[in-house]
Structures are given as C-alpha cells and as structure tokens.
Amino acid sequence: MKKKPESLTFDRFQELLAPVHEGRPNDIFISKPLTVVGNVSHLLRQVIASQKLMQLEDYRIGMIMSGTVRANINLIEHELKANTLVFLTPGTIVEPIFVSPDFTLKGMAMSAETLHLAAENQLPGFLNGEQMDGHIKITEEQKDFADHLFSLLLKALLQQQMSTKVVHALIMAVLYDFDDLFMRQRSVNNSNKTRDRGVFEQFIHLVNLHSKQEHQLAFYADKLCLTERYLGTIIKNVSGITAKKWIDRSIIAAAQVMLKYSDLSVTEISMQLNFSNPSFFNKFFKRHKGCTPMDFRLQ
After folding, report:
1. ∠ CA 105-106-111 to the nearest 5 degrees?
2. Which stretches are transmembrane (predicted)?
C-alpha cells in the first residue's frame, strides 16, 4: 500500500523543530514566512522514525556540512554527502531513509511570498520553476563562504528590530551565491542542453520580468521570434506545464506579495497587474487560489 504524503505545514514544521529551538535558541530562527536552522538532522531523524512522506509547502535551501543522508525526493532515491547544496520547491515530496550519526545540514525554509518579496519578483535562475529539486557538489572553500552567508542571515534575524531591507538583502546574498554555483554547474553541461530547453529558460526569464504587465502568450512568442503555437508546444514538452499556466503562476505570486505586504487596495493591485477592472482580477485570483483577494489578505 502506497504511503500518502503528509503536508509539512508551518505548524508541523515548528512542532518538529521545537526540541532544537529549546536546546539551541541561538542556532535557529522560526517564523511563518522564514525559518533559518543551523542543523536540521534532528528533524530528519523524527521523520524517518515516523515513516512518513512529507510534502513541502514552501521553498527549502540547504547545505550539507557533514555526514550523509539518503532520501527519496520526488520518488527518486538520492544519496547526498558533505559539501552538497540542495534546493527543494513547493510540492516536493521527501522521504528521508537514512541519516548518518555525523550528519548536519544548515538551511532555510521560506514561503513563496517571502521569496518573491525579497527577490522583487525576479527569481534567481535555479528557482525559475524548471526543476522541483536539485543538488550539486561544491568545494570546501565554496562551502565556507556559503556558511558565512547563512551565519550572517541567522545573526541578523536573531537581533531585535533588524531592518527588513537588511534581512532581504542577506536572503538574496545566500540565493545569489547558490544561483552562481548552480549556473556554473549548468554551464559545464551546456553542450548537452537542447535548443528547446534553452527556449524554455528564456521564456521563464521573460515571464519573471514582464508578467505583471504582459499576460498573453503572444508577447513572449514575439520576444522569442516564435509563433504562439510553437512556443506553447515547446514549453509543454519541456516542463509538462502549459505556457499560460507559467504566466498565471507568476501573476498570482506577484498578487500575493502585494496583498500581504503592501497597503495598496485590491483595485490598485488589479491596476498594477494590468487587469482591465477589479472584477476580472477577483475572478482570476479566486479561480487560482480558491478565495478572493480580500479574503487572502485577511488570512
């Protein structure tokens, strides 16, 4: 009988991390939008003991400092060792199988809203939606530098009244460092990259830049000098998701950030997102999120 994934909500995540927080309060920062942990090995051991699959609701960025972990990630088994960067995106299903006694992993979990807010809706390439998960090996020097960035972020979060701008800048410093390392690895494999994958990456980049104003596939097809039909076929073949759904996802992410973190009215947000009137925006948002923009703001 197949196991059903348990949704790893913030409340459940906080519950699993509670023993770590009590024992090492300066090694962990917990909040719903953003959590940074110096070592999540205790959490993984609890999940192994429970024999449950966990489905993530947020983004996870981590670095294995020592030891080994073996886990099924989106149904594929991986064995990951020290000096490995890992990222997991919302919807990822994780089943830890084994954690060595010396295993330590430093990382952070953040909501989609926090990510888009910090990145100002221009996501680093490794989080552009092409992959649900990924991992790469890095050098000891690269690990030390990434560790320093994580430590700065954790220290800033643990201070009272730290500027949100500083926190966002440190989040992006971590993400840009990851992005640089993942892109370097990708460049090694560029000779094997198909033309269609290249078109997909260009499309995602354009969507991240222009989706607030440009909702139609025709705009992106024109930018890429392709017909709408051909571009749509490429995007569906490469990602398994329609081009229109990628555009809609980006619009929804931008709307969620503005609803949660700005004082703009729903009418003003609909205008900023280039909807012809608030009614269309309301219908669009409810179709994708199951609630009205105002209901989402009040949650």
Report:
1. 115
2. none
